[in-house]
Amino acid sequence: MTDDDTPTPVEQLGYEQARDELAEIVTTLEHGGLDLDESLRLWERGEALATRCTHHLTGAREKIEAVLAQKESDDDTQD
């Protein structure tokens, strides 16, 4: 979150920031006691955060797979 309590846009969050905020939202929703509008707002933010986390993880997986494929290709050409 920013200094004025306005949530940071989800697109600007790194993986760890998005994951941590998502965990906070889940905890808040599990405890209940919120009105419907606040619960829906948090749910929607949580969905966006989960999508952001998935995006980060997919990008990391693709990078790892590319490195491994390149290493395998290099190993094949050295034989």
TrEMBL record:
GO biological process: DNA catabolic process
Enzyme Commission code(s) on record: 3.1.11.6
Predominant place of localization: cytoplasm
GO cellular component: cytosol; exodeoxyribonuclease VII complex
Record keywords: Cytoplasm, Exonuclease, Hydrolase, Nuclease
GO molecular function: exodeoxyribonuclease VII activity
Reaction catalyzed: Exonucleolytic cleavage in either 5'- to 3'- or 3'- to 5'-direction to yield nucleoside 5'-phosphates
SUPFAM superfamilies for this protein: XseB-like
Keyword Nucleotidyltransferase assigned: no
Top-rank EC class of the record's enzyme: hydrolase
Record text on subunit structure and interactions: Heterooligomer composed of large and small subunits.
Function text: Bidirectionally degrades single-stranded DNA into large acid-insoluble oligonucleotides, which are then degraded further into small acid-soluble oligonucleotides.
Family: Belongs to the XseB family.
Protein name per UniProt: Exodeoxyribonuclease 7 small subunit
Organism annotation: Gordonia bronchialis (strain ATCC 25592 / DSM 43247 / BCRC 13721 / JCM 3198 / KCTC 3076 / NBRC 16047 / NCTC 10667) (Rhodococcus bronchialis)
Gene giving rise to this polypeptide: xseB
